[in-house]
Specification:
Layout: H1 4-26, H2 36-40, E1 54-57, E2 61-64, E3 67-68, H3 69-75, H4 87-96, H5 102-114, H6 120-128, H7 135-145, H8 151-158, H9 166-192, H10 206-214, H11 219-231, H12 240-249, H13 255-266, H14 274-289, H15 296-308, H16 326-338, H17 343-360, H18 373-382, H19 391-412, H20 425-439
Antiparallel strand pairs: 1-2, 2-3
Bound molecules: N-hydroxyamidocarboxymethyldethia coenzyme *A.
């Protein structure tokens, strides 16, 4: 049986060759235009990246290598006796481009197990940070601290042919993913559980071991983590964490520098940090209203007040999606199946009844629907993970799967250093003046 690396090489290297000559032949073809509104509005929707791992459709949601989340719930291998897909499977699918078998996910699990030991200096470095440092700060710093082990950086220093970049990048990616649950759980226990750490259990899969090291006893939490770490893994290439990872990696920075950059992007409240903001907002609402289960009218009034205060309603809206996020829906289904009477989950479902109508009244808001972050906090709260500052670390651990699989592809395909063109406002004004002159 070939190794994961051999399988990746067998897929990626012929495609790299083929795509290079394809671009040589068709390179002058125009794939899109950019309006001034797109330029000023966060380069929204401009086709400017190539990402193989997944693709997002505004009216359907994410597809990983062509498979939607409901399809993957049925098609990806599960743990023995489990119901939820294993993150090992989504990683295999994104990296290799084929649905994995049970043996394939066992191979990925085993690879990560072998590589999972975290160097002591990373723990020592974490202990120099205040316990109150935001968990995302600790996470990003710990990832960066592991850069000392970069196989890519050492190979580059020694000197290597650019055709071979993908190989040490693959090694870094596998080493890094393998260590993330241990680091994330360490941060969780140091910040919120008096530094009482729990040793890894090598008999468990990647997600279940993470759940175990966090110290959550309910076996159902392991299922949730498998689902959670699968569905947050990727959202095509243009989202801020994926794009930041790709951008940093495009300079031939190694996977540690690149992922740390991506994690920093995820730490913004308009992106991944929205999952902590949702629960903070829900808890504040309950406190300010003085009810554990506010009425629909009270929720509506609270949403209107949030908007009137010039704040965003966290967990709602999306730069691309124009439907309720399928990642929200799958979490809601999990919660309804496992804890239909949970109070906070019910508040989240009540918000879902009200918010799209209220946000939909504002013409400028292009999507009044819930995104992935609207539900995850309620689900975590149910299992006793109430420390919401930690939530984005869970997201980041999952997002690493997609952005790091993409880094392997970036190096195999020989993608260039990223360097878009910037212009000044004066340039834009002159351009528009000339444009108008030419069209009268
Ligand atoms: N509450 C209030 N206002 C909102 C809003 C919301 N939930 N969603 C959008 N808007 C506002 C925007 O702030 C923007 O206002 P201005 O023109 O005054 O700047 C306007 O509506 C148009 O925004 P848009 O085109 O619909 O959406 P954007 O692509 O600009 O922004 C965001 C997308 C996700 C950032 C936005 O919807 C938002 O801030 N949502 C709340 C935060 C959130 O949930 N973020 C997580 C998104 C999913 C994700 O990446 N997870 O990691």
């Amino acid at each position: 049986m070939s190794t994961l690396k051999e399988r990746f090489a067998a897929k990626a290297l012929p495609l790299a060759k083929e795509f290079k000559s394809f671009v040589r032949e068709h390179g002058t073809k125009v794939v899109g235009n950019v309006t001034l509104a797109q330029l000023a509005g966060g380069i929204r929707g401009v086709k400017s990246l190539i990402t193989e791992t997944s693709q997002l459709d505004a009216m359907e949601g994410i597809r990983f290598r062509g498979y939607s989340i409901p399809e993957l719930k049925k098609l990806l291998p599960t743990a023995e006796g489990g119901t939820e897909p294993l993150p090992e499977g989504i990683f295999y699918l994104m990296l290799i481009g084929e649905l994995p078998t049970q043996e394939d996910v066992a191979m990925v699990s085993e690879e990560w197990r072998k590589r999972s030991e975290v160097p002591q200096h990373v723990f020592d470095m974490l202990e120099t940070l205040p316990k109150e440092a935001h968990p995302m700060t600790q996470f990003s710093t710990a990832i960066l601290a592991m850069q000392t082990d970069s196989v890519f950086a050492k190979a580059y220093e020694k000197g290597m042919n650019k055709r071979d970049y993908w190989d040490p990048m693959f090694e870094d990616v596998m080493n890094l993913i393998a260590k993330l649950p241990r680091i994330a759980a360490y941060i969780y226990r140091r910040s919120f559980h008096n530094g009482e750490h729990i040793a890894p259990d090598p008999s468990l899969d990647w997600a279940a071991n993470f759940a175990h090291m966090m110290g959550v006893k309910d076996p159902e939490f392991k299922s949730l983590m498998r689902l959670y770490l699968t569905i947050h893994a990727d959202h095509e290439g243009g989202n801020a964490s994926a794009h930041a990872t790709h951008l940093v990696g495009s300079t031939l920075s190694d996977a540690y520098y690149a992922l740390s950059g991506g994690i920093n992007a995820l730490a913004g409240p308009l992106h991944g940090l929205a999952n902590q903001e949702v629960i903070r907002w829900v808890l504040n609402m309950r406190k300010e209203i003085g009810a554990d289960r506010p009425s629909l009218e009270q929720i509506e009034a609270y949403i209107r007040q949030t908007l009137a205060d010039g704040k965003v309603v966290p967990g709602y809206g999306h730069p691309v999606l124009r439907i309720p996020d399928p990642r929200f829906t799958v979490q809601m289904e999990f919660a309804k199946a496992h804890f239909p009477d949970d109070e906070i989950a019910n508040v989240v479902w009540d918000i879902y009844e009200v918010a799209p109508k209220v946000l939909g009244e504002k013409i400028k808001i292009k999507s009044p629907y819930p995104n992935v972050d609207a539900h995850s906090g309620a689900t975590l709260m149910h299992y006793g993970v109430t420390e919401y500052n930690f939530y984005t670390v869970l997201f980041g651990t999952s997002r690493a799967l997609g952005v790091l699989a993409t880094l392997c592809w970036d190096r195999a395909l020989g993608f260039a250093i990223e360097r878009p063109k910037s212009v000044t406002i004066e340039w834009i004004k002159e351009f528009v003046a000339k444009y108008e002159e030419a069209t009268v």
